[in-house]
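Q&A log
Question type: sequence-to-structure
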Amino acid sequence: MFAPRYGITEEAGTGMAAGPLACYLYDIMGMTQESMQIEQGWLMSPPSPCAIKVNLDIRDGRIEGLMAGGRARSVDVVRIEV
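Response status: OK
Response body:
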């Protein structure tokens, strides 16, 4: 989630970034792993490290789908009035 208008400057742990990165690594960079662990958030201020596990669903050498997930913990609560 990236919503600076609401005080959310960056979210480190996001499958929205890890999933496409895993697809890029498989399709474009030639990596053959169907399961990858992608770390994010180490360079944030303050650091917010996380690891997202991405499992690619490969059929006939093509990506048909993926599952991305991991563990998280809440570090802040923000209330937004809409």
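Response note: The chain has one domain: 12-69.
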